Amino acid sequence: MDRTTPRARIVSSPIDLGELLASVADVSCGATVLFVGSTRDQNEGRRVVELQYEAYEEMALKEMERIGSAAEAQWQIGKIALVHRLGNVPLGEASVAVAVSAPHRSDAFAAARYAIDQLKKTVPIWKKEVFEGGEVWIGLQGTSTTTNEKGR
Questions:
Q1: CA-CA distance, 95 to 64, in Å (whole number)?
Q2: Which helix H or strand E contains 106, and what residues bound it?
Q3: What is the pTM of this model?
Q4: Does the 3-39+57-124 domain belong in CATH 3.90.1170.40?
Q5: CA–CA dist 50, 39 (Å, integer)
Q6: Three-state SS string across 33-93, please?
Q7: What is the chain's mean pLDDT, rounded?
Q8: In this model, does residue 149 exceed pLDDT 50?
Q9: Could you read off the pLDDT of 112-130 as tens digits, one per residue?
Q10: Predicted confidence (pLDDT) per residue in 20-73, tens digit
Q11: Whose CA is closest to 29, among 113, 106, 98?
Q12: Neighbours of 36 (CB within 10 A)
């Protein structure tokens, strides 16, 4: 089930980047920045098969909304939107995206960078990287637990 607030969304299906860009469109803004984080096929020398995401959804939405509000307070931007996908995310597909519109590009870039950095640091979303021969959970503090095919 998808969950939404004015600035934040958590989805279980592929992220619609066109819809995300449309949600921040503003005729008073001359710049729009879109950041997309997608599943890559390699990490730390391992061949990645897919990523799996879980979240404390209610808290994640509140924190994503707070990040959007903080960006609006710090930079002159028109609109900001953050979206994160949960569940299985195959290779090449987007797991997270941030879009920002602003009158000028410097504020749009700065706010987008702030938003994705804060999202990765503070939002309670956990990633399981599934790779050939095992998997590893990656938490907020950068700690991880690795399991091989035999569960060790």
A1: 15
A2: helix 105-122
A3: 0.88
A4: yes
A5: 7
A6: EEEEEECCCEECCEEEEEEEEEECHHHHHHHHHHHHHHHHHHCCCCEEEEEEECEEEECCC
A7: 90
A8: no
A9: 999 999 999 999 999 999 9
A10: 999 999 999 999 999 999 999 999 899 999 999 999 999 999 999 999 999 999
A11: 106
A12: 16
Q: How long, in residues, is the chain?
A: 152
Q: What single letter denotes the amino acid at residue 34?
A: L
Which strands make up the sheet holding 3-4, listed edge to edge? 3-4, 8-11, 79-85, 94-102, 31-38
- 8-state DSSP, 123: S
Of 124, 96, 126, the residue nearest 112 (C-alpha): 96
β-strands 94-102, 31-38 pairing: antiparallel
Residue type, 143: T
Tens of pLDDT, residue by residue over 82-97, are 999 999 999 999 999 9
Helix (H) or strand (E) holding 136: strand 134-138
Query: What would the two tokens of residue 30 be?
Result: 């001359």
Asked if 148 contacts 140 with a C-beta cutoff of 8 angstroms, the reply is no
- 19's tokens: 């819809």
